[in-house]
Amino acid sequence: MILMAVVGGSSLIAAAALAKRSPGWQLASIVAGTIMVFWIIGEIASIRAFHVLQVIYLVTGALVVAWTPARQREEASSKIEETTSSSMSDGST
Fold first, then answer.
1. Rounded to an integer, what distance in angstroms lies between the CA atom of residue 54 and that of residue 40?
2. Given this model, what pLDDT does residue 67 score?
3. How much is the pTM?
4. Residues 47, 23: contact at Cβ < 8 Å?
5. Which residue has better confidence, 43 or 74?
6. What is the DSSP string of the chain?
7. Contacts for 37-46 with beta carbons within 8 Å, 24 or more apart?
């Protein structure tokens, strides 16, 4: 139940925030990935066994954290797109 509520719930909240493009979707995604990474590390430490799925979930959590775009990069890219689109509509190249 804890696994479903904490790890699954945080991932579900992050996915819903991303789908709605809520203002805090980046934070929700990073938190969900971090929870997954710590859960797997704790699982490996507690059972002292190894399974390939643990590696897959650990890498997935780390990639979620690493590939979530920073807010500054997103704002900068939107400004670049606005500048590009306005210069193209003016006819200048």
1. 6
2. 93
3. 0.72
4. no
5. 43
6. -HIIIIIIHHHHHHHHHHHHT-TTHHHHHHHHHHHHHHHHHHHHHHH----HHHHHHHHHHHHHHHHSPPHHHHHHHHHHHHHHHHHHHTT--
7. 37/61, 37/62, 37/65, 39/3, 39/6, 39/7
| Closest CA relative to residue 44, chosen from 33, 55, 35, 34 | 55
Model confidence over 15-60: pLDDT tens digits?
Answer: 999 999 999 999 999 999 999 999 999 999 999 888 999 999 999 9
Tokens read off for 83: 């500048």
